[in-house]
Amino acid sequence: MHSTRRWFIIHFLLIGFFLNENRNALAQETLFIGAIPDQNPERLNRLYRLLCEELNKELDVPVRYIPVTNYPAAVSGFRTGSLDLVWFGGLTGVQARLQKPGAQVLAQRDIDLHFQSVFIANLTSQIPILKSQNELTLLKDRRFTFGSESSTSGRLMPQHFLQQVGVSINDFKGGYPGFSGSHDATLALVQSGSYEAGVLNKQVWETSLRRKKVEGSKVRIIWETPSYPDYHWLAQPDLDNRFGTGFTRKLQNFLLGLKKQSKTQSRILNLFGANRFIPAYDYQYKDIELIGRQLGKIK
């Protein structure tokens, strides 16, 4: 009798132990998403909170947004596996893929295949609207700021277009440009007169115009760049092993299926500055990789 009772106690203890272990294992399988901090944290937190809630509802997995302090931190988080799905710019996406073989490009916005940067100037600088790329030479010896040092639209491609006409980053006033850290910071610095000119992505400029953050009496566009591919979602190569066969495809289908007809999804798309997401492929970023190597941003 005692031995039977003892067996039942041990049996239930073992069941409880394995149930707890399974619950702990399941609890650890959270999808961690991240993004380059290209805009102010309040806007990013609002966007990714909504996206996490929608992903959780549609895919039935816990989803958590992990903010990062700068662009390299997003690349590092993807390399170490602490971030599973990241919204990268063109350059940081290439950097992350090269450090994590098998990573999958899932989607880009409808505006990302033909993205642009805008050069802006404070009106007191008296820098004219440039008639051609060749007139970027007028920015020599001016106080000029890029965005983040690792930004595709705020540094890499603008520097590339400058170098095509013989302007190096050592040609600005003081022998070196500023690096504001984000696109909206660049706008604020040029608008305030801290810098005479700068460059940011066109989508942030247009969003700032709609939100009445641009003071037309202080700052204006002086030149728009040719187009290039930019932002995209990048996923870890092992998501199917962790979340089940076909999970990566489900994740991609969710992103591609975001629609304006849904109130929440419409808010997400609006915060992304897009009408929809479209498929993206790693080959689209070959030129970004080449330019990154030429400018020393990819070793």
Key attributes of the depicted protein:
alpha/beta, D-Maltodextrin-Binding Protein, domain 2, 2 domains, 6-stranded mixed β-sheet, 5-stranded mixed β-sheet, 11 helices, 11 strands, 16% strand
Q: What is the topology?
A:
Layout: H1 2-28, E1 31-35, H2 41-59, E2 63-65, H3 71-80, E3 85-88, H4 90-99, E4 104-109, E5 117-122, E6 144-146, H5 152-164, E7 178-179, H6 183-192, E8 197-201, H7 202-210, E9 219-224, E10 232-235, H8 239-243, H9 247-256, H10 263-272, E11 277-279, H11 286-294
Parallel strand pairs: 1-2, 1-3, 6-7, 6-8
Antiparallel strand pairs: 3-10, 4-10, 4-11, 5-8, 5-9
Helix pairs in contact: 2-10, 3-4
> What structural class is derived from the secondary structure elements?
alpha/beta
Per CATH, the architecture of the largest domain is 3-Layer(aba) Sandwich
Mean pLDDT: 92
Low-confidence stretches: 8-28
Helix content: 40-55%
Computed CA radius of gyration, to the nearest angstrom: 23 Å
CATH superfamily of the largest domain, by name, is Periplasmic binding protein-like II
Number of structural units classed as domains? 2
- Strand fraction equals 15-25%
Which sequence of strands runs across the widest sheet? 2-1-3-10-4-11
What fold name goes in the CATH topology slot of the largest domain?
D-Maltodextrin-Binding Protein, domain 2
Describe this structure in words.
The chain is 44% helix and 16% strand. By secondary structure, it is α/β, with parallel strands linked by helices. The protein has two domains: 11-113 and 230-294, 3-Layer(aba) Sandwich (D-Maltodextrin-Binding Protein, domain 2); 117-224, D-Maltodextrin-Binding Protein, domain 2, CATH 3.40.190. The strands form two sheets. Strands 2-1-3-10-4-11 form a six-stranded mixed sheet, with helices on both faces. The protein is globular, with a radius of gyration of 23 Å.
